[in-house]
Amino acid sequence: MAGKKTYDYFEALLGLSKFSLQAAELLKKTISDFQVSTLEEKIREMHNIEHSADIAKHDMIEHLVKEFLPPIEREDIISVAQQIDDVTDAVEDVLMCIGMFNVKKIRPEILKFTETIEACCKSMYVGVEELRYFRRSKKLHAEVVEVNRLEEEGDALYINGVKDLYKNPTDAVDLMVWTEVYRKLEKCCDACEDVANEIESIVMKNS
User: Is the pTM of this model over 0.90?
Assistant: First the structure.
């Protein structure tokens, strides 16, 4: 009789980070070809990604509750899983914010921000992929550093973007809307950095 297949937590975490990357790719695609007529459809598509990520996270936690000896500490698995989930949530929040405020036209500099978020999620994905091999990985440290660099790039985009908003404000509502959108964009990069920092902490604890 074949033995029971062991649940692969590293693969599960990678699956969660894949949802984050899919969300970031959808955000960039939506912003780069922004159409009000299809926005609700894109928001639903984004929500489906986020909902699938939630189901996958809960499935992983159910396995973890019953696990006798996980590959790394339970608290670390739960923490990094939640932080990856926070990335997906943060990306969804951007699109929901744009829809909620009935945005009709995208500021051109927003596309650069979505490109940075996508790059951040790609580096995070590789970092999670390499976590399985953290004792011998030649990529892991470089990806953590890259996420940190991209988060700093996101900070600069946020500061400069909001600064430009307030240089010559003409519409108070427009100002409020884009200040909030910028805040949510910046939160995406912060969430990716949280994952990278957690991965770095796990490596230190287990080395």
Answer: yes
